[in-house]
Amino acid sequence: MPIYLNERNAAEFVDMPSAVAAVRAAFVAQARGEAVNIPRTRLEFGERRLNLMAGGGRAPDRYALKSYGSSSHHTLLYSAEQGLLAIMEANLLGRIRTGAASAIATQAMARPNAGKVGLIGAGRQARTQIQALHCVRCVSEVAVFARTRAKQTTFCEQLESELALPVRAAGSAQQAARGADIVVTATTSSTPVLMSEWLAPGTHVNAMGANAASRRELDPQIVLRAAMVVTDDIEQAKAEAAEFIDLACAGRLDWNDLIPLHRIVGSSGFRRDPDAITLFKSLGVGLEDLAIASLLYDRAIASGRFKPL
Predict the structure, then answer these.
(1) Tens digits of per-residue pLDDT, 19-59?
(2) What's the CA gap between 3 and 286, in Å, rounded?
(3) Three-state secondary structure call for residue 105
């Protein structure tokens, strides 16, 4: 019988440093040909939708299937030998693994000693983005812009207290991005919230909010200006990354120029021009869900409180 793990269990057993390590290991395994990602499928049932995504790896020999509708997220973790190991509530897990992927990309792509972060968005995903960057020592101060000022103020106060970092409210998205080493977009906007002219030379951008063809967080010029464009899965980007899809349809972007995240994770061959713009387009992929689900399962079993039957 599989065990059932809820949101409280995820908060208890999964910490950000371990999540970053687990997600990094999954992409390293993919680079070695030892793990695979299955891009998200979006199913429609009239006005209802069901999203499915999956990932599998050889060490250990496990695979995960994540499904979610409008709000409830669940991951099924399987073992090739034992079958279904666990059913997990995955809202928090999804936010943690998405932040972890951005942190891994930032470590590889941002300038050394980058620390000034501009954050556009103040939701739950925005919080784990900064938590993950803090975990890998890529943030020394944060400027935050959100459309709802009360939410922005509360977010800044809580984040500053939690991480013991200077966190200030910016008056606009442009002010948040001004002078930043790293800019993070964590919104559900259908139109761009970050413009190319706001970015100083050498800025790294993590665009993680828009993971559907109807959403666009970035000025197209950012994509064209970037010396290096990375995403967690190119095939998934072809269906979900609207900023890329628009440019490709216009003949201004070649999909072959995009780099999958697994190719740069752990690579020592990448040398960055200090004045170059770099871009990580995060979509959230099933391989990341496999990594975080395995971490939660192993720790839950090690606690002795959960015993598969």
Answers:
(1) 999 999 999 999 999 999 999 999 988 888 899 999 999 98
(2) 20
(3) helix
